[in-house]
Specification:
The strands form three sheets. Strands 2, 3, 4, 5, 8, 9 and 10 form a seven-stranded mixed sheet that branches. Helix content is 44%, strand content 21%. The chain starts with a strand and ends with a helix. A hairpin with a 2-residue loop joins strand 6 and strand 7. The chain is built from nine helices and eleven strands.
Length: 312
């Protein structure tokens, strides 16, 4: 059966989705490819309130994970979602603030250390020519000769200074489901977008009927679709992005016109330069024949001063 659910590419719907800690746990577990025991929303939730240039939803989680060796530890998840192309400096500025946040400092016996951090970017746009929809940028430690250092790693000091990143290119999903993460992220796949209303996705629940976690996510999105306040919030986002698209179109048209004008001016300059070269060659030829400037002036229909300026 086809379910008509709210589109989580919208900030308001995504926020509604991950506010459910069970769903947050499902998503984070799939992203980290680890067992997540507990998830909590961190003290501060950051959203772009003014959104004068970009739309970016940001939220921080603390996740208690269990490693394959049975050890448990806390990981900070800095999740950022945007559906417009963004400046990487904006992402870095936010990340810098998180490193400086005293709430993200852990204590162990007599010293402090930064809690390990993973940044997750859910992008509504493509990144260059990278074809893979999901990219893991994972740090490693190497010695001077390029050999990977494994003894003593992970180490709190090292983990405090570097972090891993997970980048998801939503436009690259295209119905691809080869693993647990792609299955979870399939609810973001915009190829399911309703033909007449981009606020809605048409999802075939039969593809998920054997997965209780996915059915839970679909039910949450189904509830979002019938929530009057969320629908209004999506309308506001649509109005905002329509204004942004109109602005970008106007800028694009202006830049195109300027580029055409610049090209025309360049062509005119080149033509003038070629014309001047021809005049100089003609004048030099006449001078070599022994003609005076007065005679050349009569022949070429120019004043002597003009002739002199061309020669110079």
């Amino acid at each position: 059966m086809i379910l008509r659910v709210a589109n989580p590419i919208y900030d308001s719907v995504f926020k509604y989705l991950v506010e459910d800690l069970r769903i947050a746990k499902i998503l984070i577990s799939a992203l980290l490819k680890k067992e997540v025991l507990e998830v909590e929303v961190r003290k501060h939730e950051y959203t772009n309130g003014t959104r004068d240039n970009i739309s970016m939803f940001r939220i921080d989680f603390g996740a208690k994970v269990r490693e394959s060796d049975g050890s448990q530890h806390l990981v900070l998840i800095e999740l950022q979602k945007t559906w417009l192309e963004t400046e990487t400096l904006r992402l870095r500025q936010y990340l810098g603030a998180q490193y400086a946040n005293p709430d993200n400092i852990g204590k162990e016996e007599s010293h402090e250390f930064g809690i390990p951090m993973v940044t997750v970017y859910l992008l509504g746009h493509k990144v260059g020519d990278i074809k893979e929809p999901i990219i893991y940028a994972v740090h490693k430690a190497y010695d001077y000769y390029g050999n990977e250092v494994t003894e003593g790693i992970p180490d709190p000091f090292v983990e405090s200074l570097v972090h891993d990143s997970i980048i998801v290119q939503i436009p690259r999903l295209h119905g691809r489901i080869n693993n647990k993460l792609e299955k979870v992220l399939s609810v973001f796949d915009q190829t399911h977008k309703d033909k007449y209303n981009r606020q809605m996705l048409n999802i075939d629940e039969d593809n998920y009927e054997d997965d209780t976690d996915m059915m839970y996510i679909l039910r949450r999105l189904l509830a979002a679709a019938s929530d009057a306040k969320l629908r209004q919030d999506m309308n506001v986002e649509d109005e905002y992005f329509t204004a942004i698209e109109n602005r970008d179109t106007a800028i694009m048209n202006r830049d195109k016109k300027i580029a055409e004008q610049d090209q025309y001016i360049t062509e005119q300059k080149n033509q003038i330069a070629e014309h001047m070269k021809t005049l100089q060659a003609t004048i030099n030829s006449l001078v070599n024949r022994g003609m005076s400037l007065d005679e050349i002036s009569v022949v070429m229909g120019k004043t002597v001063e003009e002739i002199k300026s061309i020669i110079c």
